[in-house]
Amino acid sequence: MATAAIIGTAGYVGQETLDRVLAHPELELVALGSDSLAGQSAGALDPRLNGSVPPFSSNDEAAASGADVLFICLSHEEAATSNPPDDAVVVDLSGAHRLTDGELARAWYGVAPGPWSYGLPELYPPQGNLIANPGCYATAALLALGPLAEVIEGAVIDAKSGVSGAGKTLKESSHAGFVLENFSPYAVGAHRHAPEIAQQLGFAVCFVPHLLPVRRGLLATCYVQTDADVRTLLEEAYAGSPVVRVLPQGTAPELSRVQGTDAAEIAAFTDRATGTTIVICALDNLGKGAAGQAVQNANLALGFGQTAGLRLTGVPV
């Protein structure tokens, strides 16, 4: 058994992380951090949480709880200035520590890179106790393209995510009046996940994200030019993965099968007219794209079974 604390529990990602920690057979929750809910019972966040869950403390108090693993679910700006303990496994779910290039890290997040390792378990297993959890878009794009990095020189990534990917803080673009019956691109040519994807692949990518009028779920369609046997490369990369499924030939990934789970689906196709290879990945932006992957990374760092606490089959959304 190991003890766990969550910093920034009140947001969508914090709540999803809490759900997985509570279901984890080898983690004991000892601290719930939230500056907005400090001093209140866990029921202030969700009335279904009973007295066995500790009350909320401030984020600083939760960080100093002495837990074996600390999940940081703060904004990029807040996480960049946090001081994680030296003797704990720390998984940062913000983007503050994902970039290893100093100039890029300062430009995007206002922080110099530290001793953090990038943790996408299937392709880049975490090294050490300080783990930068990948972004949701980056996870989908890298799962699709990572096994092909040696046989391609560039990619166009057309990605769509549910509105929960924008976080819980209210903004005009997350109003129901904007999202419902609408479909829109955003941060075109300037999204922070583009340099994160490029860093891991080793070449620049053209990345355009879009906002879907759904609560959760993410789908990335990636276009590349290669003569390699892409399907074989994908099957070999994920043959032993309990999380990533390469679908049968001719079957396309769907949001409905991954929503509410920590699994990912991948499929490859060839465009008959141009010979373009199309690799599609679907996952839940709050699951494999955030909380599920954070727990998966923590499991690896702590020596637990990789899927402990994860949801790998559908649940109500």
Largest sheet: 7 strands, parallel
Helix amount, in percent? 25-40%
Number of helices: 10
The rounded distance between the terminal residues' Cα atoms is: 30 Å
Residue runs with pLDDT of under 50 for 5 or more positions: none
Mean pLDDT: 92
> What fraction of residues sit in β-strands?
15-25%
SS class? alpha/beta
- Nearest-angstrom radius of gyration? 19 Å
Overall shape: it is globular
Quantity of strands, as a count: 14
| Order of secondary-structure elements | EHEEHEHEHEEHEHEHEEHEHEEH
* Strands side by side in the biggest sheet: 3-2-1-4-5-7-6
What does this molecule look like?
The chain is α/β, with parallel strands linked by helices and 317 residues long. The strands form two sheets. A seven-stranded parallel β-sheet has the order 3-2-1-4-5-7-6. Strands 9-10-8-11-14-13-12 form a seven-stranded mixed β-sheet. Helix 5 (136-145) packs parallel to helix 7. The chain is 26% helix and 21% strand. It contains ten helices and 14 strands. The mean pLDDT is 92.
List the helices and strands and how they pair.
Blueprint (H helix, E strand, L loop, with lengths): L1 E6 L4 H12 L3 E7 L22 E2 L1 H5 L5 E4 L3 H5 L8 E4 L9 H8 L7 E2 L11 E3 L3 H10 L9 E7 L14 H4 L4 E2 L7 H9 L3 E7 L6 E7 L5 H8 L6 E3 L8 H4 L5 E7 L6 E7 L3 H16 L15
Parallel strand pairs: 1-2, 1-4, 2-3, 4-5, 5-7, 6-7, 8-10, 12-13
Antiparallel strand pairs: 8-11, 9-10, 11-14, 13-14
Helix pairs in contact: 1-10, 5-7
